[in-house]
Write a structure and sequence with these properties.
4 helices; two-stranded parallel ribbon; two-stranded antiparallel sheet; 103 residues; alpha+beta
């Protein structure tokens, strides 16, 4: 669904997915659904590890939308409450005009 929105509106809007800290790392709160789907990701300790996890996520989900990575201080996740996932629409001045519910 997100890929369809992106393809239909990418000429009129700038889309980005922000990859934040891992919600269900294998060395933390791993969930059975991730295990069944083969999504086994340890908590990234460096930005390079987080970037690798984001790339793997994008490939696994076959995402076409460009991904940017939250820094290791998790500033973006804290500011926008990105867990478990959230959609924001901002106007050209950076004002939030839509904030979706979690999930």
């Amino acid at each position: 669904m997100l890929n369809n929105l992106y393809e239909n509106y990418k000429a009129r809007a700038d889309f980005k997915i922000v990859y934040v800290r891992e919600a269900h790392p294998s060395d933390g709160w791993q969930v059975q659904q991730n295990q069944r789907q083969g999504v086994i990701v340890a908590t990234p300790k460096t930005l390079a590890e987080r970037e690798k996890a984001a790339q793997e996520c994008s490939a696994h989900l076959e995402l076409k939308i460009p991904i940017v990575i939250d820094n290791m201080d998790d500033r973006v996740e804290a500011a926008y409450s990105g867990w478990p996932d959230r959609i924001y629409v901002m106007d050209k001045d950076g004002k939030i005009v839509y904030k979706g519910n979690p999930g």
